[in-house]
Fold this protein.
Amino acid sequence: MKQLCIVLLTLFSFHALGQDVSLALQKKPVINAQILAKAWGAVSDGLNTSFASSNVRFPKELPPQGKQQSDWETKAWKGEKVHAQVLIWTNKNVENISLQVGDLKDSQGHIIPKSNISAGFLKYVMTDEYSAGCGHRKPQDFDSSLVADVIDTKTAALRIAKNNTQPVWLSVMVPANTSPGNYQGTLNINADRDYSMPFTIQVINKMLPPANEWAYDLDLWQHPAAIARVHNVPLWSPEHFASMKKYYQMLASAGQKTITASIVNEPWGHQTYDDYPSLVKWTKKKDGNWAYDYSLFDKYITFVMECGITERINCYSMVPWKIAFTYYDEQLQKEVVFKDAIGTPAYNVFWKTMLVDFTKHLKQKGWFDKTYIAMDERPMKAMQAVIKLLKETDKDWKIALAGDYHEEIENDIDTYCIASRFQFPAATLAKRQKAGKISTWYTCCTEPYPNGFTFSPPAEGVWIGWYTASKNMDGYLRWAYNSWTKNPMEDSRFITWPAGDTYMVYPGPLSSIRFEKLLEGAQDFEKIKQLKASYLKNKQTVQLNELNKALAGFEIKVLAETTADEMLQKVKPLLNK
């Protein structure tokens, strides 16, 4: 069994207030009690505070290293969300610590209201390490640690124990109608006395569109049953839909464009902790005909659209990981599983009957043009067979695929999301863009970096947006928005895949460092797109070349030698000139 370090650190052990040391992936120092005692012995008595980079995770059991920052200054576009960390550390027990923010004001009396400012204590969850990546795993076989990730905006006050560090996440959402200027405000930390942390947001005269108008195509797959379980409400009950609402609104506010819809039971072979039931009820009647109940599908799709996710409906899946389609047989009066292989005559009859009926229903609802049959990577013959069947049913059926790049079927895929180890040929990408097709990329358990595990350096979420822009792609997919583990607020480890792979947000809903950084990357993508168009229009060749040169450095292999944070520190100032 590998050692669980006394301070529950791994790659986050030693770093300054603004430095990401994620390259320590292979070097995990064990910190003993003597080192801890020496570190805390050098700390000033009482409560200590400092601003710190939002690109770094700070351990609980060590005081932060480096020069303290008493204030924070940053630049922002109108319509942009910016954030920082504030660290609180102490060598004595401190009770009842609370946070307070007020309006930000400029010299002309304009304000950014406090309703646009949030401050939340960061909570720690168990994580592990990348190691072998994909595959079944046991916690005792991997180095485990506590890592800051949950942004808890619901806890009003807490206690910090002696010799502990408590990070705070501070976010400011700049309203679109904000006048340019320097907006000043304060985060007040109320403890044994009041501690004032001043900060300034310089709002520049550039504007981001609202998230629902972003070009960046974010796709995080939703998991309704997980929400029912953690909120302890019956699946598909009114209480379940009420519980889901804030999660889907949070996702819509990040620019999510696609609804994840299961049209069969367990389209991914029950790879998650919670069930993934079908939204469509399949019934084989006594006379041998088929009936399809779309009432739950309709209710769910309508609900998600009302939450703000409206552009696409991705239906999973005619090509599941395990060929096992469940339906109710009236003659046998029981559930039956259809198992015939993809492309066989029996498979084609089974699905053709459903597709004809489903097509008619979608057209009646006015949803056919935005509905896609979605597939994960599967053997080529299986994917080609499904494509052929779909086009025979209706030539206008749209298809989405997440997987390897295949020239043979590229032209048939309307939304094509390729694995990070592939790239679209430039001519193919240009052709797809001209045709209005979506071309994105994804990471999962296969890639050690860039990624969104709970141990991944936060800056990698931002890096993903820059990489997307550098490769002229449309967006990014990550397979799980909220496929929670058994105790997601305490332990992000799972029986398969590295910790955090199965979810980006927490029950509440509560955001995470990872989710906020992914959102920051999407904002940067929008800035890059807007600036490049402006530079071209105004013939600002110097600025355009400078930005293109910065983008050219974004290659995944570079992360083996340089941290995402280091790369971003050099290029992000280009967006706020």
